[in-house]
Structures are given as structure tokens and as C-alpha cells.
Amino acid sequence: MKASRTVKTAAGLCALLGAVSATTALSAGAAAASATPQVYVALGDSMASGPLIPDPTGQLACARSTHNYAHDLAATLGIPTLRDVTCSGASTTHMTNPQSLSIGGVAAGTAPPQFDALSADTTLVTLTIGGNDVGLVGVGQDCMQLNPFAAPCKGKYVVNGVDSVAARTNAFAPKLAAVLDGIHQRSPQARVLVTGYGLYIKNGGCWPTQPVLGSDATWLQSEVDYLNSTIAGTAAGHGATYVDVRTPSAGHDSCQSESNRWVEGYVPLTTAAPLHPNQAGEAAYARIVGAVVTGG
Question: Given 3-state DSSP classes, what are the helix, strand and coil percentages for the chain, each rounded to the nearest 5?
């Protein structure tokens, strides 16, 4: 009988110790997840750099703003070290290769490979990339149409059922995978967040407020959405967290009023680049990314 009680007591003690250990591990994990990142590296293209939004910082031709989402996020979370190397025109190539810069067609120096900013002590990385690999802004500009009776521009890009823009997105996926693997190799401690792209124009468009035919507006945004789904799937398979900025952008596309829009249209109403996020959009993206960071 005594032996039985001893066995039960020992078993109970083991269970208690196990529970305490598990609780301690969970608490430590929660603390780590909620801890403020100490070294934050922001990588990416013009959606992340914030072209023409006051105030410029870094290399002028990169069109990097002190009010892009990386700067807003670092300020809000109190991150002590921010290395923002986002640059307009950047593609996956420029993660590991220098980027030749120009302003108005005039050479304006070279940006180092963005991966140069990564280090072993990096604790947070955000990445926004793919738009230039796919050429979405160029397609959007090509689809500008002042004649409401013109043929849709989609016909230039979808021929005999073959979508050349979607094909470029498919070709981008393995490039993104290589970029994510490269980040993990250089910064093994870092939490890696990959953003998608926002809602640029609502379904059916808003011609002539934005000079793109209704059917083309729907198609253009569908290409952005396909890029987003490609980014999300690739991130999931390569140790990164996808941050959806498209869904929260509903009601904030370029068809909306100046006070409601997060992205500018063909003719900006605020100080921002055409077909890019404005200051309100960058601030909104910072809140969205920040919620993911603090949410664990």
C-alpha cells in the first residue's frame, strides 16, 4: 500500500514538474514572440520605399521616404535599429546584385545589393518584392485609356488563352523562394514577413476618374491578386509569414476620395508617385504589419 502511494506521489510530482516546464516554455515562447525586434532590415521595391512621399532619405534615386511603412513601423514599435534599403525599381535580382539607378534617364549611381544590410543579429526582416519582376506598373500604364470605346488592353497580354503577365508571375515564384532562403541563411534569427500588394482599383474600375476601362480594371487587379497568392504560397513554403495588405485595403483604392485612398491613381492627388501607395497607405501598411509582429 505504501509502495503504491509512493508510486502515485512520484507520478504526480513528475506530472506537476512537466506542467511547470511546459508553462515555462510557453511563457518564454510568448515573451520571445512579443519582444520588440532589435535589428530590423527592410527590403523591397517602391511599394515599400514610398517614392515622392516626404521626406526623402538615403540615395535620392531609390525614392525612399522617412514615412514609408518600415520607418513608421520602427517608430511605432520602438525598434532601436532600422536598416531600410528599399529602393524603387528593385527586383529579386537586386537582393544579391547592385542596382543601377537613374533620375529622369540620367545615371544616378548604384545601390548596393540589398542583402548587404542583413546580418547574423537581424531579428526582423520585411520584404516587398515582385512588382518589378512581373512589370505590373508598366502594364498598368499601358492600359491607360481615354477613349471609352477602345478595345480592352487585356487583349495584348492574354492571347489564345495564354496570359503573359500570369506567366511572368509563375516565373517569379522560384526567384522569391531563393530570396527567402538567402535571407534565412544570412539572418537565421530573423522573423521574416513578406507583404503582398494592395487594392489598386476596385472591380469594374471608375472610368474616367481613373482612365482605365472597366474590364481592364478588373483584369489588372486580378493580376495583382494572382501575384499576392503566389507570394503567399511561396512564403509559406520557405519559412516566412505572409502579410495580406490587399484585404484591409477594401474601400481605399484609387477610385476613392483623396481622404480615403491608400494608393494613388494615374494622376496623384497627394504627394506620392502614380500607381503607388501614398503616405496614408504606407501608414496603414505599417499598422497591418505591426499587428502581425506584435500578435506573435
Answer: 45, 15, 40
